[in-house]
């Protein structure tokens, strides 16, 4: 009897050891799987970052500080002329027709972004017009930013508006481009090609717009509480002086997800050519009195 009990006890002990070992082995496998999945996620994150960096490197061939210096000179040049004779649009509200671009359009942000990435021309340099879609649209040398963003919006599905009234090109409720010749100005509305007129039109035709003071956006924490929370790919941004007069127009084309707290918004533009350039690099270098307008396109 004792011998039988001893055998049973030994068997139970062996069984419990086996269960314990199997449990330990199971836990080890779970930990291994968790570690493998963690590494896979880290690898995916790194690959995404590498792809984005590879894309950014086309723009980063030109030192960021050099670009910022040129951009600030552009700001100075445009604003120095703002009180001189500049084209103005006819904004007499009694003539505004009932056509609204947003209400008649279906905006595809991805299509707008794809166009911006295809035709920004940054691979040819900051000022080159190679890579522009000049078979379809005109080129306004050194002042092509609004023209380019209008093209992006059109590619995203925003419908052109052209009334039958005379001088439609200077009317506030028209937005169109019917010529590839930049000198044929009556076939290209001011709202399509001129920053101030673009602003007037899209304030009335976007889903909504928000104006930020640069002083509220030029630290990482402030940037994330304002522009980062507001901007989506396909939205339009204008940089303005303290009076709210715009001097540059760009379109949001990507995000830079940082492992810490420095997530950034990336934009593309003409004059100067940029692809997925840092928005934060710009706002942190602008005067605190300047403003940034974000247009939510739908």
From TrEMBL:
It holds the Pfam family Amidase_6. PROSITE patterns: PROKAR_LIPOPROTEIN. Residues 1-23 form the signal peptide. Keywords: Signal. Residues 106-283 form the Putative amidase domain. Coiled coil: none annotated. InterPro entries: Amidase_6. The keyword Signal applies. This is Putative amidase domain-containing protein.
